[in-house]
Amino acid sequence: MSITFPHAVRQWTLEPQVQMGGVRPDFVLRSSQHNLPAIAIFTDGWRFHAVPANNTIADDAQKRRMLRAAGTMVLSITWADLERDANLAQGKAVSAAPPAWYDAQVISALMQQSADFGADHVEAITKGPLDFLLGWIQAPDLAGHEALGNRVPWLFAKDGAKLALDPDQDLAQAAAHLLLDTQPPALPARAATTSWWWRSGHVGVLTRARQLGAATSLESIAVLDDRPDHLGDGHRSAWEEWLRLGNVLGIRTQPTEVVALSELISGTVPLAGEVTEPGVPGLSTAWQEVVDGAASDAERRVLQGLAAIGRVPVPQLGFETPEGSPIDIAWPDLRVAADLDLDEPTRQELLDLGWTMVTAEVDALVAALAGPAGDKAGTEAHKEG
Question: In this model, does residue 273 exceed pLDDT 50?
Answer without folding.
Answer: no
